[in-house]
């Protein structure tokens, strides 16, 4: 008998009909002899409805009250789901974050889980019940309701699977799994059967939206086997597991792109100690996240500093930096919003040199100029002009033969 | 400094604009130096929306899960209200039933309050905050969410006022207060300034919908001064208080009517011990409530038994009784749905005889035939043909001069 935690997102439970369908599906898994813990999101549209109410009332909604408000969305879904299971002839019980209890810190709207009590869940599982738990929410020591922020329900599911030592954590979504790249721009994109936590972490941070990065990190830390799969088919999806359990590693597992960044360059910065802090401190004080940073090799004590920020922060960042440039005596500030970050990810890079240069060659063959490059142990990212996005993704996907499964790692790479 | 509990119903908080208006109003009371505890219902329409979801899913929704579902409605309102108070420049905190805690028994969907812990409320009041509390909900010893059934938010407000020893409990609604009769059918209807708990209990049980009967009973037991008033004006409403605090009692305080009942008569019932149980046991087993019961004086060992039930139960009751009549050897079963119960209520009746006969005379003067009569210490109810409802109400209202305040009690009545 396996213990399985499953999470269904908002579109999977977006109507009473869909909730009934999920209940029937879960019942099937239980009848196969599994103990089932089901984490649910709010019905699609519900969180927006509540957020609109809040913004009608308070310009910057109070965070504690925002959590009080938003946590109702998941509460509605789990109550309806428990009813659906009972109507289908089995037994279920719904539990809120504080009823479990899922204890968090008190950082409202983006709380972090501190501990999970599994006693109530186990008691109900042992009584033969399907246990459905509100995603996205927890409770502070004081008893205040918190929410876990973006992707919070995935985090709830993985954390529960870790605490319960579940055999698997299955994340049901509206796609079939994790793909070698975005099927919308590359018809040859292939669903990946198995991928390591580290690769998934890179893919998630690079813009693959199927899994929230926080839940992948949590799964890695507690070695929770993650299964990303479709709500609408019975097909196996993508397993995210430990690297040493994957029989044949791909050299490159996936190609991603991200069009949400903008590039900023400060020209002729005096090259002296502490100058980087002077530039980036006002930026981080304004709550603006910086992604890639490149400082060109300097000659004549002047250097160019280039980095990327979210496009939504671009205007604010430019304003701040124009002041900073004046103060530190830099020559000018230039920006470009029409960029894309193209990345390749694969654990095979750990043991194989030359992947980066292969990537550069492939892009060069297509006449695509690289504006920035950054690398980690298992990924290479290039910034290119936005108009080349699709071309670059397809060329890399082809060159690394990602449409073929288990492409052997050969030494000539 | 007074401590005031105020309750606003669903229509008073039916939109974000209305919630902001309530917040401004409450802020005004706080600025006058009062400590404010605000009990809120779900936004109008919300409970219906959730109930529709449930009925889509489970024919007879599970009661525990129904409470889990419905309790979200009030949670949304208190969160938005707390935001509105903060936006208006003061401080507020929202508390759920289990955060207070309001402990109940485990009779889901119609739980009864067992105890209220006032520590958390007092702590927040002492910190200068407006405390807003979800109406209609509580929590069991085990930690399950319960709801209090019809009129539950009124009950929450009165129970909180009792536990906090509040100076007053104000119920805000969409009418100006309690009227001598329904203003929709009698233009001379007058708002009552003060009324006793007992009179209000009778009015509520007879169909005056402004206050739920359970909350009036609770207010009486704990001597909580209740103030029923309008959300939409600043006018004083109706105070429901102890009888001995009302300077001049009215002989008759109000006239009510109820068109929701139907009359059933079983003819020629053998008049022997235990026969009433044989008739009414199958009815109560079917969950059908019986209101008035009249057994005519018997001759020749045969009697007629007449009683009223809710119109919604009429068809079921008739079916059951036809079988019963066969079994006990009664002659026949007759029913009439086109009836109305007209009642007069007043504590003055305690010390003045002849009120009932005055009522009968007034109805006779209008040519209205009475089909059934029942009396209590402070009320007289008559069943008449439904078509006479308005005529009867107006005639009684006129004859007992209810449009005049403080009509003296004179001995000739």
Commentary on this structure:
Two copies of one chain form a homodimer. Chain A is of the alpha/beta class and 413 residues long. The first copy, chain A, folds into two domains: 3-174, Carbamate kinase (3-Layer(aba) Sandwich), CATH 3.40.1160.10; 245-413, VC0802-like, CATH 3.30.2130. In chain A, 35% of the residues lie in helices and 26% in strands. Chain A has helices at residues 16-31, 46-57, 63-87, 97-100, 119-126, 152-163, 197-205, 213-222, 275-285, 314-328, 355-365, 389-399, and strands at 3-8, 35-40, 92-95, 102-104, 113-116, 130-134, 137-139, 145-147, 168-173, 194-196, 226-230, 238-241, 254-258, 261-270, 290-295, 302-310, 332-336, 339-345, 372-376, 379-385. In chain A, the strands form five sheets. The first copy, chain A, has an eight-stranded mixed beta sheet, with helices on both faces. A four-stranded antiparallel beta sheet of chain A has the order 13-18-20-19, sandwiched between helices. A four-stranded antiparallel beta sheet of chain A has the order 15-16-14-17, covered by helices on one side. In chain A, strand 15 (290-295) and strand 16 form a beta hairpin. In chain A, helix 1 (16-31) packs across helix 3 (63-87), helix 2 runs antiparallel to helix 3 and helix 7 packs antiparallel against helix 8 (213-222). Chain A is globular and about 75 Å long. The two termini of chain A are 45 Å apart. In chain A, 47% of the residues are buried. The model of chain A is unreliable at 407-413 (pLDDT under 50). Chains A and B meet through helix 1, helix 2 and helix 3 of A and helix 1, helix 2 and helix 3 of B.
């Amino acid at each position: 008998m396996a213990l399985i935690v499953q999470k269904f997102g908002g579109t999977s439970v977006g109507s009473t009909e869909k909730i009934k369908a999920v209940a029937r599906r879960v019942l099937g898994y239980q009848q196969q002899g599994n103990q089932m813990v089901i984490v649910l999101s709010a019905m699609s549209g519900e969180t927006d409805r509540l957020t609109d109410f809040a913004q009608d009332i308070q310009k910057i909604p109070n965070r504690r009250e925002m959590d009080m408000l938003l946590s109702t969305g998941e509460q509605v879904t789990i109550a309806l789901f428990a009813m659906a299971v009972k109507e289908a002839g089995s037994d279920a019980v719904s539990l809120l974050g504080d009823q479990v209890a899922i204890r968090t810190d008190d950082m409202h709207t983006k709380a972090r889980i501190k501990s999970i009590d599994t006693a109530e869940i186990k008691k109900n599982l042992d009584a033969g019940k399907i246990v459905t738990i509100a995603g996205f929410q927890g409770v502070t020591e004081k008893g205040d309701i918190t929410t876990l922020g973006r992707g919070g329900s995935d985090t709830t599911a993985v954390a529960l699977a870790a605490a319960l030592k579940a055999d698997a954590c299955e994340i049901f979504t509206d796609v079939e799994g994790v793909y070698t790249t975005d099927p919308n721009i590359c018809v040859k994109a292939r669903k990946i059967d198995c991928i390591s936590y580290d690769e998934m972490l890179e893919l998630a941070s690079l813009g693959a939206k199927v899994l929230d990065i926080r839940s992948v990190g949590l799964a890695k830390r507690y070695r929770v086997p993650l299964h990303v799969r479709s709500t609408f088919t019975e097909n196996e999806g993508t397993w995210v597991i430990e690297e040493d359990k994957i029989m044949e590693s791909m050299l490159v597992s996936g190609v991603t792109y991200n069009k949400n960044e903008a590039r900023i360059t400060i020209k002729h910065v005096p090259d002296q100690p502490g100058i980087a802090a002077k530039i980036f401190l006002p930026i981080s004080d304004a709550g603006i996240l910086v992604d890639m940073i490149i400082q060109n090799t300097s000659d004549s004590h002047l250097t160019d500093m280039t980095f990327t920020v979210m496009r939504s922060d671009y205007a604010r960042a430019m304003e701040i930096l124009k002041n900073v440039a004046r103060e530190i005596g830099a020559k000018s500030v230039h920006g470009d919003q029409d960029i894309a970050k193209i990345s390749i990810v694969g654990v095979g890079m750990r043991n194989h040199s030359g992947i980066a240069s292969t990537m550069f060659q492939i892009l060069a063959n297509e006449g695509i100029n690289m504006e920035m490059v950054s690398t980690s142990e298992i990924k290479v990212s290039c910034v290119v002009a936005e108009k080349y996005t699709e071309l670059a993704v397809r060329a890399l996907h082809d060159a690394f033969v990602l449409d073929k499964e288990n492409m052997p790692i050969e030494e000539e790479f």
